[in-house]
Amino acid sequence: MTKASSTIKPDEAAHFGALAAEWWDPKGSSAMLHRLNPVRLAYIRDAIDLHFHADSSLLKPLVGKKALDVGCGAGLLCEPLARLGAKVTGLDAAPENIAAARAHAEPQGLDIDYRNEAIENFGGKDHDLVTSLEVLEHVDDPQGFVDGLAGSLAEDGLMIISTPNRTALSKLLLVELAERTGQIPRGTHHHEQFITPEELEKLLNNAGLEVIDTTGLSYSPAKGFSLSDNLSLNYLMTVVKAS
Fold first, then answer.
1. What is the bridge-based pairing of β-strands 234-241 and 87-91?
2. What pTM value is reported for the model?
């Protein structure tokens, strides 16, 4: 059962929980995430190698390290992190997502600790890597959510966050076009809840964190998603504890 939380929006959890059965279908309702995931993973791997001074040729650079993915859905990020050697915990607001995540990981022998729990109720600390991708725009209290992320991060840990920017382009592509054409399920995005990089950096600073990189995620029909200097659609941030 989900514990009482000031950051989880019950309607958002219900929306994503209803999609749980299709999380792992690359042609289903999460198709956009499947196309986005390799680009996000490449960014995360580069950040891991840089932060932990790992050789890019290592198959398991996270051996001996704890990773936490907040808003994990059915495990699209947790599973790659486990394969990189991390001891992974995944939190999600929807119990249906947690059930789908466990069902997908178990046959592959992936030992991932999935929990239907809010970050502010989690209590876990000292994670070497904390991630939360495309989640912040769905929470009820962004500052409380970021504070929870900060509290789970080790002093020398690494955090990766991604979220859509609140711009005319993101409204056109992510809300109006993507949902109207069925690329994203209707009701997934609410443009007024999108957060600009400046707003997110302020939330992170308030939580004692420091942004060390901001990179855009762009999209084109021909090439799909790619990392970019253009932040107008979506962006990733690399974050550490403030010195």
1. unpaired
2. 0.88
